[in-house]
Every structure is written in C-alpha cells, then in structure tokens.
Amino acid sequence: MRLISRSFRPNGRIPGRCAFAVRSPKGHVRLSANRNPHLAWSGAPVGTRSFVLTCIDADAPTRPDDVNQEGREVPADLPRAPFVHWLMVDIPPEVTELAEGSCSDGVVARGKTAPPGPAGARQGMNDYTGWFQSDATMAGTYLGYDGPCPPWNDARIHHYTFEVLATDLERCPVEGPFTLADLRAALDGHVLARASLVGRYSLNPRIRIR
To answer: Could you say which residues form the signal peptide (predicted)?
Structure first.
C-alpha cells in the first residue's frame, strides 16, 4: 500500500493550519486552524473490508518537569512515549481519500463530540483527553483529529506517523470512546496491509524544519 498527502511531503513539515497550535510572539503559541491534512491511499489487497487510520506522535515527553516552563528546555535525550492524535475505524473500502479539513476544522474546547468523517466511520479518543483533564476550560473527551502541539521549549523535533491499515473487518469490534490500546487488541490478526507517512513539527523558535 501507499499513503500520500497534498498537505505535506514525506518527512516534511506539517503546515501550521493542520496543527492545534502555532508559534506566537506573545505567550509563545496560539491556537491554530487544526485542520486534518489531506490523505490518499492506494494498493489495498483483495479482501479488504474496511480501513483504519491512526496518527501518533512518537516524541511526547515522558516527564512534565520542563514542559512549557520559562527559562528551561525539554532535553532532546529525555525518554519519549507515544501521543495519540487520531483514531478512525470502519472507513468503507471504497473510500481512499480524505480532503484537508473534512474531519477537523478548528479547535473545539472540551473536544469534538461527533467529529465528521466518511459515512459509517467511527472515531476514537485522542490523548488531548488526558492532557487537558485538569484544565477547567478545556477538559473533556477529545474524539477524532486534533493536530500537533508539542512543547514550545522542546529540543526535539516531533514526528507524526499517519498510518492506514487495510483490514478484513466489516466492523471493528471497539465501542464508545475507544483508545489506541482497545484498537490494537481489536485488530490483532485482522490487518492485511498497511502504509504510513511521517510529518514533522516543532513550536520551538530555535528549530527550523525544511
């Protein structure tokens, strides 16, 4: 399988309009357009009954000590962990493209309750749910796509892997606001093929991504 995007090139910079936040001279960052990027895939094997889509940041800090703290920097060698930005299941086999902004267009405080997407598809919970749990103005259940917002003082560039999986499932056996762990368990033995595309992003003013 092959996965491409007209929003960014492979291993290139994800545009600010597809991020949760962009750099700002005041307060370091401001909320952005938060549009899902364009994605298109091809080469699914015979027997594909549905597609699954994920987007995961592999570079989330494992300790919050230095995150977004004035006069400090998140060290590049700090151990990292995945941060989920998008989970979607039950994408019909005839759907092989998502337009930019078709599933997310703007930041929704407390999270999108019914994110748009292909007819029949369902979207799971991303990790902004946990990130904002102690924020009185933003706390909620975040479903669907919410784009990059790495720490503005992180010394490491973050890598976001978009992945499409062809499955033999007409309906993925996950329910409600499902998580990545739920999805991985449900897909065990049902993935026929996969394709991925990596984009990079940083809010650190010292870092320039080409």
So the answer is: none
